[in-house]
Amino acid sequence: MNIEQNKVQNKKRALILFAHGARDARWAQPFERLQKLAQAQLPDAIVALAFLELMEPRLPAVAAELAAQGCDEISLVPVFLGQGGHVLRDLPPMVDELRAAYPALQITVSAAVGENADVLNAIAAYCVSSLA
Question: Is the pTM of this model over 0.85?
Answer without folding.
Answer: yes
